[in-house]
Design a protein that fits this description.
Main location: membrane
Number of strands: 0
Membrane topology: Multi-pass membrane protein
CATH architecture: Up-down Bundle
Radius of gyration: 21 Å
Order of helices and strands: HHHHHHHHHHHHHHHHH
Helix content: over 70%
InterPro entries: Cation/H_exchanger_TM (IPR006153), Na+/solute_symporter_sf (IPR038770)
Pfam families: Na_H_Exchanger
Number of domains: 1
Keywords: Membrane, Transmembrane, Transmembrane helix
Largest sheet: none
Oligomer: single chain
Shape: globular
Length: 413
Amino acid sequence: MTALDSGARVWAGLAVTPSSELMFIVGVLLAGALAGEFIAATTRLPRVVGYTLAGFLAAAFGHGVTLPLSGAAQTVTDLALGLLLFEIGSRVNLRWLRRNPGLLATSLAEALLSAAAVALVLRAFDVGWPTALACALLAMPAPAAMSGRVALEMGAEGQVTQRAQLLTALNTGYAVIALTLMRTWWAADDGGSLPQALAGMAISLLTTLGVAALLAGAVYLAARRLDLRNESAALLLFGLVAFAIVAARSIGVSTLLMPLLAGLLLRNTCARPWVWPRHFGTSGGALVLMLFVIVGSAWSPSLLVAGGFAALALLAARWLGKAVAIVALAPWAGASWRQGLALSVTMMPLSGTALVMLSELMRAEAQLAAGAVPIILASIAVLELAGPVAVQLALRLAGELPPAPTPRKESQP
């Protein structure tokens, strides 16, 4: 086997030896870091574009990750998304929804309308109802990773940035629970007992809530004795969240819903604000970088062709559904039309959350997922590159980006 062949197997996530796993992680980290810094140095675009471009180019040369995710690719994706969802959940104050019911209505409307629009459009492309509904649920959540990372790098602050975090947290929860319900229904429809399937689903959700409560409690106890802004304390926090995510994966509960619920519990059962380094410091930042490279490489030219116009139609219907709901309800939610339009654009990307949900669906319902794979992966491939630019433009439209520094004029001798 040549060195090139060996590298291809590492990129594809097929090798299982510890050295190959380490090579995979190092290769992803180096490629993403170099591409991100190149983009930052040569353009005004976010580094996320460079991270994604590194994965995109790897996939173009046949070295993308394979689905369902496994090995190092699955570990990195689970940890990075789990950390991001825990962080977003811990910054979302659900009391805001009680004070502003228009926000709750906006959240429900954008999730339901976008899902319905996707399902109906795919049916127009002769996609079967089960596949169309699966794609609708997979396309429901906005990406926690992309919008949050772009806002952080650009230094965005304001109502649109905060509302994007809230809507992302809520529609991720809706999508995971709805997909679990659908899988339960399919299991019963295939000859199983519906009460037994519902009981299994209830046990799974309660277990997820239990693990989330344990994680929230552990972080709360650590925060009583440590300053979480300290680097060592942040590393302990990183370890607690990572351990809970690994435990969730081992017992078979959602690695998306558990950290999100833990963050929400932590934020909304305690009045104190929670402050720690973004992405829990350098370790979390490295994982997030690798996440974008991995998600950006989860496609192939053949999948783009197979997804075809159905994927483009899904993207158009998805954004239109979200935009109509968010802009129409903006006055009730206390936002201007301009803020509503900007917020709808921040909801446009489709990223790691959909990829993980698709991977789990492939393990549970391989035959059903087969029809959704090309459509969803083609959609992710398009929006992984276009999404960060769209979020940046939306935040600029909302006026929430700090002014660009003016270059210093050299004094004349």
